Amino acid sequence: MSAAMARAAWREQWPILFPAAMLLAFFVVPFGTMIAVSFFERVPGGFYQPAFTLDNYARFWSLFFGRVLGFSLWLSALVSAICLLVGVPFTRALTRLPRRAQVPWLIALLCVLSLSEVIIGFAWSTLLSRTAGIGNILFALGLLGEPMSFTPGFAAVLLGMVYQAFPYAVLVLYPAFSRLDPSLAEASRTLGATPVRAFFTVVLPALRPALVATFIVVFVFALGCYLLPQLLGRPQHWTLSVLVTDQAIYQSNMPFAAAMAVFLVIASVLLVLLTAAIGRNRAPQ
């Protein structure tokens, strides 16, 4: 290979060096370190020491952690499904508005994204409380016999997580709905389909890749949520992310926390691949 060809090949490759270095520094190295720590031994009263033991992973084969993992996956899937059910008609209605009318809605969604999980958690905790919340409003309207609190509870956890994840769902769906050819639905209605039937038989199948991507994004986001279950739920509503934080910070058991984190990453990656494969296999030909 001549020197000119080598320089040309180098110029083609160097733009990817920076993102590759960032990926190596901020994902590969930390994740590799976490995997290594997951095989270490905990030192009682101290931190941990290098070793190779599978005891941290063996603790997963218990009913307690199986229940927590199943609840975490089920809660994340439920949050993703609700965000899709609400986000699809909302985004379709939003994209059919004039461009100037869309801007305030998009700004409002971005404002929600600017709020931290702490603010969202305490805000919903106040709104759902007995003394200063929605219970008092329903009591004043005569819908409740007495003011009551809706937190802590599963409904409060679900509401808080859907509220936090909903803007992500809309922002992923928005480009797909904006680029959707309106003649598809018009053609189906010309052939006799009702608007509802055209939406379910023409519009949604055309948007299947965006729907799958939205489900995956919200699912992964909800799976990593750990503060809202603590603020709005009871201990039985805690997810695996909460237990990872508890073991790492409060129990000082970093090897077991690392093992749970690795297990959570592997489980989420497998589910994401499965969801993507289902969406690809059912894509319109």
Plain-language structure description:
By secondary structure, the chain is an all-alpha fold. The chain contains 14 helices and 2 strands. The protein has a two-stranded antiparallel sheet with strand order 1-2. A hairpin with a 5-residue loop joins strand 1 (41-42) and strand 2 (48-49). Helix 4 (63-95) crosses helix 11 (208-223) and helix 13 packs antiparallel against helix 14. The relative contact order is 0.13.
Summarize this structure as a short list of keywords or feature phrases:
285 residues; mainly alpha; 2 strands; two-stranded antiparallel ribbon
Instruction: Figure out the total of helices.
Output: 14
Number of E strands: 2
Helix % is over 70%
Uncertain residue ranges? none
Tell me which oligomeric state these chains represent: single chain
Sequence of strands across the biggest β-sheet: 1-2
Helix-and-strand structural type: mainly alpha
Strand residue percentage? under 5%
Overall 3D shape:
globular
Return Rg in Å. Answer: 24 Å
Distance between the termini: 43 Å
Most strands sheet: 2 strands, antiparallel
**Mean pLDDT rating:** 82
Q: What is the string of helix and strand elements?
A: HHEEHHHHHHHHHHHH
Question: What's the layout of helices and strands?
Answer:
Elements: H1 3-13, H2 17-38, E1 41-42, E2 48-49, H3 55-58, H4 63-95, H5 99-113, H6 117-127, H7 134-140, H8 154-179, H9 182-190, H10 195-206, H11 208-223, H12 227-232, H13 240-250, H14 254-281
Antiparallel strand pairs: 1-2
Helix pairs in contact: 2-14, 4-8, 4-11, 5-8, 8-11, 9-10, 11-14, 13-14
